[in-house]
Design goal:
31% of the residues lie in helices and 21% in strands. It contains nine helices and 13 strands. Helix 5 (115-129) packs parallel to helix 7.
């Protein structure tokens, strides 16, 4: 039996992790009564009693919670931004490389990737690692997400306090200081931060992260069909990532919808475009492979369980 504690179990990510684990016969969920949920002493006791602790907290609270851990066998899986670029922590995206997978398996400290960063890294990391684009490539990206990615406050705004402006998509992060940028740059080995444009729209969950490429600026020239085959080979052993068949117009009759994997934990890579300009899209659920699904996958790998145990896959 694996003892699991979720610090921040009342938040969007914590609730989803709890829901996925509650019926798992191999998991014993350690629960705090409501009146002790913010008690440092009670939280510390639970962390040190657990085999796995999920931190579903703001950054500062996550950093503090880590200091409570005195049990050398407790694995901390942090869903916040706090430790994603810390080289002492495993970056929780196993499919990026065997090195990433092995570090997740053997580390006591695992940082779950950000939702936007998950899509970005799934596309850009392989390109840099294989020398298809250089570390100096001027990467740009935009990401369309449902409002659940903004947590309880944004969910309330869209469901209870909605204004007429919220009927349309809203671009944000205009100052190019989005909190996922450091991990995008660091994990992918880029020399510069990408120009990144996140967009939130009026639907609950689902995400499509898009990275455009100019063929003439690639170190290794490829046409769309060749690039699609590259991704297919790169992720051939990945159980949660699939590469869709090539179509120059994309998918769904020339449209690409961002919510098709809402509620699911897998991810799709889509290559479209032409000989001069290509578009690579990573599509998934911001609450699944972009948050709680990735956290549970990391737990499964760490504990030697089936990697997809408790996950929902199309």
């Amino acid at each position: 039996m694996i003892n699991v504690f979720i610090d921040g179990s009342a938040g969007t990510t914590g609730l989803r992790i709890s829901d996925r684990l509650k019926d798992n016969s191999e998991i014993n969920l350690l629960l705090l009564p409501d009146e002790l949920r913010k008690s440092p002493e009670a939280i510390k006791a639970m962390i040190n009693k657990s085999d796995i602790t999920f931190l579903c907290l703001p950054d500062a609270a996550s950093r503090e919670a880590v200091t409570y851990c005195e049990n050398p066998d407790t694995v901390i899986i942090d869903t916040s931004t706090a430790h994603r670029t810390n080289p002492e922590w495993a970056y929780g995206f196993a499919e990026l490389s065997p090195l990433h997978r092995n570090k997740i398996k053997n580390s006591k400290r695992i940082a779950v990737p950000g939702c936007h960063a998950s899509g970005f890294c799934s596309v850009v990391y392989p390109l840099v690692a294989a020398g298809i684009i250089g570390a100096d490539y001027p990467v740009t990206a935009h990401s369309l997400t449902g409002y659940s990615g903004g947590g309880k406050n944004m969910i309330k705004d869209y469901t209870e306090n909605k204004t007429v402006y919220m009927d349309s998509p809203a671009q944000y992060g205009l100052g190019q200081t989005h909190k996922h940028l450091p991990e995008m740059k660091t994990i992918c080995g880029l020399e510069d931060y990408p120009v990144f444009s996140p967009i939130v729209s009026d639907y609950y969950s689902g995400m499509a992260v898009t990275v455009p490429l100019f063929t003439k600026h690639m170190k290794k020239k490829m046409n769309p069909q060749e690039l699609r085959q590259f991704y297919s080979d790169y992720y051939k052993d990945a159980r949660l990532i699939s590469v869709l068949p090539y179509d120059e117009k994309g998918v769904e009759g020339g449209f690409l919808y961002a919510n098709t994997l809402s509620g699911k934990d897998n991810m799709e890579i889509i290559v479209s475009g032409n000989e001069d300009r290509m578009v690579i899209v990573s599509r998934f659920c911001n609450l699944g492979k972009g948050a709680s699904g990735a956290a549970i996958q990391c737990m499964n790998i760490s504990c030697g369980l089936d990697e997809v145990e408790g996950l929902e896959i199309v």
